[in-house]
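tmp note - Glycosyltransferase family 2 protein
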Amino acid sequence: MTLPVSAFIICQNEAHVIENCIRSVSFCAEIVVVDSGSTDATLDILERLRAEGLPLRILHEDWRGFGAQKQFALEQCTQEWCFSIDSDERVSPALAELFPALLADPAVNGWKITRYDYLNGYGYVPPSSHERYHNRLFRRGKGRFNTTDLVHEGIQIDGVVKKAASGGLLHFSPIVLHEQMLKENKYSTLKAKMKQQRGIKPRPWKMLISPPLFFLRWYVTYGLWRCGWPGFIHCAKGAIYSFLTEAKRYEYVAMERIPPVEPTDVKGY
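out:
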């Protein structure tokens, strides 16, 4: 069954994950992919899938930042409903089965959908340990991204938004810890810069409070304790990201106040 949905995806060098993502939304009438300059086999894979008959529209757009790039992709969608999915995500079988019912509710303009992370050494977290819900599916014209979001872009939806009752997105990102921490370092820099641009003042006390609260929210509230040590590591990575974000925001201001110029008076050392 083909549904009146435009799935939209932004990507760059995602050859290792893009095919399974595209196939998981093959029930959509349109799949919009905006590539920002892949140099691996991503575009070859997309062209092969389009040749198979999948309803792919492949576009190029230089990188604008996460929020602006996704808003550009959204603006290319033509169907009644729009569905945001990342290249390392897949629609679970339960969510795919639920899609027709989600679209059939006339009182709803958008749906929040949960996500199940893949943990190295464990696999996908169990349904009882899912992530928080995110705005992902909405009527065209009722949702938008903040184009100033440098990272962790969210969708603002007008009107009634509900949670999908079952299923979710399978987040397959089996990155080794070394590479994952490089990513967390990059994203924390973007978030700190975004806070700086928006005039959000540093709150040094959050370096103490945010990391343990982040860990406990994921480990206890989201139930990652069920996943053993892989779950512990996943939550600890998030806590480190939380600390780095707050520390970098503080450091930007501190270095403006006291520039890193080597002191000339070093007596007593």
